[in-house]
Amino acid sequence: MAANLLEVNNLKTYFYTRGGVVKAVDDVSFIMKPGQTLGVVGESGSGKSVTALSVMRLIATPPGKIAGGEILFNGENILDKSRDELTELRGSKISMIFQDPMTSLNPVFTVGYQIAETVKRHRKDVSNEQAWRRAVEMLDLVRIPDAKRRAKNYPHEFSGGMRQRVMIAIALACNPQLLIADEPTTALDVTIQAQVLELMKGLSQEFGTAVMMITHDLGVVAGTCQYVNVMYAGHIVESAPVKQIFQTPAHPYTVGLLQSIPRVDDARGARLTPIAGQPPDMVNIPQGCPYAARCPKVQARCRQERPELQLVGRGDQSAACFYPN
Amino acid sequence: MVQQVQKTKAIGTTLVDVKGLKVHFPVKGGLLGRTVGQVKAVDGVDLFVRRGETLGLVGESGCGKSTTGRAILQLIKPTAGTVKLDGVELTTASSNDIRRKRAEMQMVFQDPYSSLDPRYTIGQIISEPLENFKRGNAKEIQEEVANLMETVGLNPFYVNRFAHEFSGGQRQRIGIARALALHPSFVVADEPVSALDVSIQAQVLNLLQDLQGKFGLTYLFVAHNLSVVKHISDRVAVMYLGRVVELAKSESLYETPLHPYTQALLSAIPVPDPEVELRRKRIILEGDVPSPVNPPSGCNFHPRCWKAQAICREVIPPLEEKQSNHYAACHFPG
């Protein structure tokens, strides 16, 4: 069906290291509708960033390789695209912003030049002057004060929060259909984070851009996303509309995650319930459910068979668990 | 003899008393490397920590919270001000005296990856302070190390392994065992859980709370995560640009913040509940934190404050008790 903007089917992204094969993303499937905001949460090493990089075809090969599956963007498989076609796609239809705004901008060009460059790369009919005007317009849009003058500044003349806005300006300059944001506010302070999230929310609504928000912060997900995928050890363990994830979490890992975070609106002193143990060694993931070793509800079956992601009988909510809540 | 665990002293008496603490770092510039300015990292901090309590110190990056923690432990020489530990003045003490005092004040660092020597075994890391302070013979120290490892939830069987063989959470436990080896009364924990994944964070936070109950520890808990600070602290001090702007009991700070900066900070924290997120009103601050090289005049929050009046640009508001046990540095609090 063409109604899906992005359809990922049985994606497998593996890294071939000296220690063995790391199955960073193993059999992951999900869809995104146009204009939807999807949150991808999980701890470090759960495969959330690798999923995003796979969609952008930015996996370094070697050691990484997309070992299987398909990624359909507007019905076309990204994995079949040539290098030139990919360059055409990146930055115009799909854009990405990264965690670290300090290193993702080029220090030797002005920010205006870097935005204009993106515009000219994808619109052959645009003149230098028009591209520059668009750059100033974009800076204004991401609420950088005095945009006309600031466009002539270099990245080091901007603060962290401002640089992330510049990144957003570059990413949105060509009106992409999909914006992938990989921990866009993790490096920023809370007050600046609030500014940037508010901005992203406003702009994605204004332009109807679909956003894949990758984060480890459940608070950010609650405030910005409509739909959530929870990842653990390379798998999606739960997938549901945002309200259900927080109100009726089905997978024991989601439950554990929610119980282990202190909340600012909680009474003080309540003891946290941590998840016992550690995430599994990604080279040597035990057979069965990857969460079995830490799960309070584990049964014999969980250690032998891997549960598939399936509906739990509450509308759109699905979990990869034999004994969901 | 290995020292016995200290008995919990009466809660409430002041253990750490900080007055007018300043730490300025010189900015060198020009051909001759002359001092051309000063980074006023900490610019007049007053606070006190009571025995057996946890004081949370929060603020955004660059506000001087870590520097304050380090200056209290004399790991950085303060430019001005006084720091008293158990009534003893540290800023004027000789380095020998401070060295002796180190047994009573310890630190847990943020990064469990870089704060442990990769060439040392866990046993060597934890026993180093015991050996430095000659707490017993080899056998006694060995026993004490095993004890400490058990106390922080590590299997003493791993005593001969190296730091890289452990996960982040386990390494943080090693760092905590090392800090506790000399049975300190005061521990500065500088962002002890911010490098850890959420499911592991809770394990370490619980451990810190257990240890406090067991050994009667006093914590200065430095962190940027307000949810974590609220969870663990009895009282909380909020810093902005080198100064404490608000200091109060945890509950009253989070329920009725008096300083506009605290109000904005609290409203900016994302809450993991979509219903709450929908209803909340956010105070979005304009602009960025100004540079501590050239902080604004008067109240240094005034360029971003929606309540600012003429007086705010001229007069530095002192940290005053506005409500019972609730201190704020603002001309127009509430």
Automatic annotation (TrEMBL), chain A:
Residues 6-258 form the ABC transporter domain. Its main location: membrane. It is a peripheral membrane protein. Gene3D superfamilies: P-loop containing nucleotide triphosphate hydrolases (3.40.50.300). SMART domains: AAA (SM00382). It comes from the Bacteria. Keywords: ATP-binding, Cell membrane, Membrane, Nucleotide-binding, Transport. CDD domains: ABC_NikE_OppD_transporters (cd03257). One of its GO terms (cellular component) is plasma membrane. It is found in: Cell membrane. One of its GO terms (biological process) is peptide transport. Signal peptide: none annotated. GO terms for molecular function: ATP binding; ATP hydrolysis activity. SUPFAM superfamilies: P-loop containing nucleoside triphosphate hydrolases. Belongs to the ABC transporter superfamily. NCBIfam families: oligo_HPY. This is ABC transporter ATP-binding protein. It comes from Dictyobacter vulcani.
TrEMBL record, chain B:
Residues 27-266 form the ABC transporter domain. InterPro entries: AAA+_ATPase, ABC_transp_ATP-bind, ABC_transporter-like_ATP-bd, ABC_transporter-like_CS, Oligopep_ABC_C, P-loop_NTPase. GO terms for molecular function: ATP binding; ATP hydrolysis activity. GO terms for biological process: peptide transport; transmembrane transport. It comes from the Bacteria. Keywords: ATP-binding, Nucleotide-binding, Transport. PANTHER family: D,D-DIPEPTIDE TRANSPORT ATP-BINDING PROTEIN DDPF-RELATED, TRANSPORT ATP-BINDING PROTEIN. Belongs to the ABC transporter superfamily. This is ABC transporter ATP-binding protein. It comes from Dictyobacter vulcani. The lineage of its organism: Bacteria, Bacillati, Chloroflexota, Ktedonobacteria, Ktedonobacterales.
